[in-house]
Amino acid sequence: MKIWSLLPSATEMLFALGLDDEVTGVTHECDYPPEANSKPRVTFSHIDSTRSSGEIDRQVTERFRAGLEIYGIDQERLRTDPPDLIVTQDLCPVCAVSPSDFGRHMESAGCKAQVLTLNPNRLGDILGDIERVGEATSRMAEAEALVAELSERIDRVRDAVGEAERPRVLCLEWLDPAMPGGHWVPEMIRLAGGDDGALISPGEPSRKLPWDEMRRTEPEIIALTPCGFGPERAASEAEALWDLDGWAALPAVRKGRVYALDGNSYFSRPGPRVVDGTEMLAHTFHPDRISKMPPFGSVLKLVSPPAGGSSVENWAPRFEPLIGVPL
Hints:
This protein is an alpha/beta fold. It folds into 2 domains: 3-147, Nitrogenase molybdenum iron protein domain (Rossmann fold); 167-320, Nitrogenase molybdenum iron protein domain (Rossmann fold). It is 36% helix and 14% strand. The protein contains 13 helices and 12 strands. The strands form 3 sheets. The chain has a 6-stranded mixed beta sheet with strand order 8-7-9-10-11-12, with helices on both faces. α1 (8-16) links the parallel β1 (3-5) and β2 (23-25).
């Protein structure tokens, strides 16, 4: 069976189920596991992701308004070496190729492949999608074993956090404009022992909210997990947040409890590693209860600003790695 994966999380699932040899096409963003980098890239982006958060947001908005695709497909490869199965998503047109866009390419190329469309909104949906991929690829036993392992890890986090006091947490999925995380992220925060302020209910998509609405939650911890960014990129882009009204006065900022995490690997991709992300959050919120350390460099912590109102307002932010285990 020849399989194309049109989203990084599906690529992670396929490799986790031992389907390395069957994968004959992946997206330009598929980088995990490392072996995925050797697979043919069958998509490309019309967005310049090297630009700032604000500029990326403007590019995406302009293309949507013009009715243009965000992603393109290797039409020639689709025609000359078509897959038997295509795994795609119908969750977010910004995150990966949408079925409607890809359907036009399939029709043009005369491709008759089976299409498996994933649409996870919560953690349970992600686990269910692993089993759906397993069923479509005759790897059901492997899928069930993986889901059982991930479910056990989720239960261990829930049990470890227990009745601990829950800090108020603001998790930002995008930085300019600031957007709180949606879909499975609120659930991750709650499982990890945080209070997400009910800005977005579990399962609901992320959306732009007025900054005042987010600021009023008075977060004690702020987690920066921008979609597609690693921790260093998130930390560098965080400078824009200091322009928000009242940002420097937030409890999390004053106490240096702002964390830049690897959103690209552990939060924005609805695959097996969201469980790693949940464990990271739990350790960040409750280090005395969660002994598992995150990989070194996957979490950067804001260096505590100096005491005093005026000095905090004018202070230049700096992040440093949270102590963790080597990669």
